[in-house]
Amino acid sequence: MEYNTYDFGLVGLGVMGRNFILNVADNNFKAFGYDLDAEKVNALREEGGNTKKVDASTDIKTFVNALARPRKIMLLVPAGKIVDAVIDSLLPHLDKDDIIIDGGNSFFTDTDRREAYLQEKGIHFFGAGVSGGAKGARKGPSIMPGGSKPGYKEVQPIFEAVAAKFNGEPCVAYLGPKSAGNYVKMVHNGIEYGLMQLTSEIYDLLKKAGDFNNDQLHETYKKWNQGRLQSFLVEITAQIFQQEDDQGNGRLVDKILDRAKQKGTGKWTSQNAMDLGIPVPSIDVAVSMRELSALKEERLRADALYGRPVVETIAQNKLSALAEKALYFSFIITYAQGLHQLADASKEYGYDLDLATIAKIWRAGCIIRAALLEDITKAYKEDSELPNLLLSPSFVDKVSSTVDAARELVSHAAKNGIPLPGLSNSLTYFDAYTSGRLPLNLIQAQRDHFGSHTYERVDVEGIFHTEWGE
Fold this sequence. Notes:
By secondary structure, the chain is of the alpha/beta class.
């Protein structure tokens, strides 16, 4: 190890950390890692192959002394108290203007707190969402940094080199002050929850209402991935249906327990949307369905208690065509909800987000990358103040030409006992958002009746209260 010669430091050499630091080294930046686990340190050294390019240590002083100033140190450790613990362990060894980057899924208010704390100590800090999983970290992720702009400027050449590329453009950009990066990554993950739920619902519908087998499901999703539904999630879904079970006969997907887990970022998105007063029902229900899936034993008991309708099948060609349109429609609605939340949060928290830039850096590397994001980028370039994607003239025909398919499938599923909560919530959101008159006047009347909460009128300005008769 040579003192003060490595360009980039990384704390946390798990799968994501190891892949990210090797990506840095592949792009001709010397990188040094730190982990308390000697096995992880040795694994990095072995895979890196040349300690002059990439090295690591279990000793924090050795790690810090290896880095050129200003030191650029990225943390890829689990969100929560461990991030604070790592920061406090680094501080005694750092100098003014050194840089710490939190690359994990930290809650955005924690990032604000940490930036203020480190600013007092003369240390630059910013949160950077990293999406793409382990493979993305190795081959090129989408990176969402926000916080100290001078700190980002120092790291920018490294991040632009390691990020995924779309038509030669790196999928990374400085997004805004404070916790802008972590907030954008949080909403990215909320959208991810919604898209995954929708993709799984359509799979369920194709099986139950069309008797599609795994080979047919593979071909269907593969074909969709060659068209306007082209996306990472549709691509890997097609692959999943082909995977053989290495522990027995048949396909692996049929052997996996229908109980989905979560790490909390989707829930944070949903909770914060409620705090902001922004409706994101496609994301809300995706979180709820993971929670409902966890009730496996109760679901089995309930299944035995209640009869289910005999499912009326739909011809496969017709069902496939309807499903493609409905999935495209609901993908648009889910992106629209997430971007609406980002637009509002930008004003509420002073992020000054550029939604066209966000959509642009999501086009490659990240889990929600999709061909649709090119159209979304253009829509926000045409109107940077667009409050909701559904108000973009360029999306009116895309939605209008696919919404009837969603109506037909939601109706069929309801009659046949097939749960489509993501698709039905997307449809209900669309119908409500595009309704000039909703029945909430009655709710205001009820609130005033029982609680004197007042109401407004459509014909006269002002706030009113009525003593309602019995």
